[in-house]
Design goal:
The protein is α/β, with parallel strands linked by helices. The protein folds into two domains: 175 residues, Rossmann fold; 73 residues, no CATH class. It has seven helices and ten strands. The strands form two sheets. It has a six-stranded mixed β-sheet with strand order 6-7-8-3-9-10, sandwiched between helices. Strands 2-1-4-5 form a four-stranded antiparallel β-sheet, with helices on one face. Strand 7, helix 5 and strand 8 form a beta-alpha-beta unit. Helix 2 packs across helix 3, helix 2 runs parallel beside helix 4 and helix 3 packs across helix 4. The protein is globular and about 60 Å long. The two termini are 32 Å apart.
Length: 259
């Protein structure tokens, strides 16, 4: 792994008097798989939105390769949500082609002729890569949850992002399907050299998949003013293969860490 692809420098997110995140300072190495855990309301999804560019910090800086991160999503960053972010009126193939059209023809919104054929071929190859090669013409309503999540991953990866954000991507799946998705995402991470940031409420999942586990929570609480303090990174565990399956006692004891 090389130097940091992402850097947070004293980042705060505030909405009026409500503080969501405070004093977040960290680096994310390129090629790492960062699992993010913590109680509900600890700012995990807000952290992902900062990386995606959907949100800007109230204070502090978010840097991409040492430069201020643009406050809008771009092709460098892809995202997969827990609830399948696919278009129900489009076939699997058209869902993935649409991602290429947004990236390559943002003004027209469509590709034509040889460019469209090349896009369809590329989309079909990506669908085959995630195990949907025989489902090009199927619509999301005809798919299982696992198939829809594979489609959402293909849709995100077709734009060749450097950073893939996963917001509880496997939470709605049955245990057996989750294991299949773990194998899929791990293989894609290694093959494409992705940097992955994944929010999960499953601490065991975090330690099995991640090369690093970060836990967000509030260091201080005021019962009289619950929004006075924000969350930050309270535990940060770099992992090697020997530690992969060992969940520290600090996280086991974290309230509401698993839902």
């Amino acid at each position: 792994m090389s130097g940091p692809v992402l850097s947070f420098r004293d980042v705060w997110v505030e909405y009026g008097e409500k503080i969501v995140l405070e004093k977040v300072t960290l680096d994310v190495a390129e090629g790492s798989f960062v699992s993010i855990v913590g109680p509900s309301g600890a700012g995990k999804s807000t952290f992902l939105r900062l990386v995606l560019g959907q949100e800007a910090p109230s204070r502090g800086r978010v840097l991409l390769d040492g430069e201020p991160l643009h406050a809008e999503p771009d092709a460098d960053r892809g995202v997969v949500f827990q609830r399948y972010s696919v278009f129900p009126h489009m076939s699997a193939l058209d869902n993935v082609v649409f991602g290429l059209e947004c990236a390559r023809a943002p003004l027209l919104g469509r590709l034509f002729g040889a460019r469209r054929k090349a896009a369809r071929d590329e989309a079909a190859a990506m669908l085959a890569h995630v195990g949907l090669g025989d489902s090009l013409d199927i619509f999301p309503r005809e798919m299982s949850g696992g198939m829809q999540q594979r489609l959402a991953i293909a849709q995100a990866l077709i734009k060749r992002p450097r950073i893939l954000l996963l917001d509880e991507p496997f939470g709605a799946l049955d245990p057996g399907v989750r294991l299949d998705m773990h194998a899929l995402i791990t293989g894609l991470w290694r093959e494409h050299g992705l940097t992955i940031l994944m929010v999960t409420h499953d601490i065991k999942e975090a330690f099995v998949l991640g090369t690093r586990v970060m836990a967000f929570d509030k260091r201080r609480r005021d019962p009289q003013a619950p929004h006075r303090y924000g969350a930050t990174v309270v535990y940060d565990f770099p992992l090697d293969d020997k530690k992969k399956r060992a969940v520290p006692a600090e996280l086991e004891a974290m309230p509401e860490a698993v839902e």
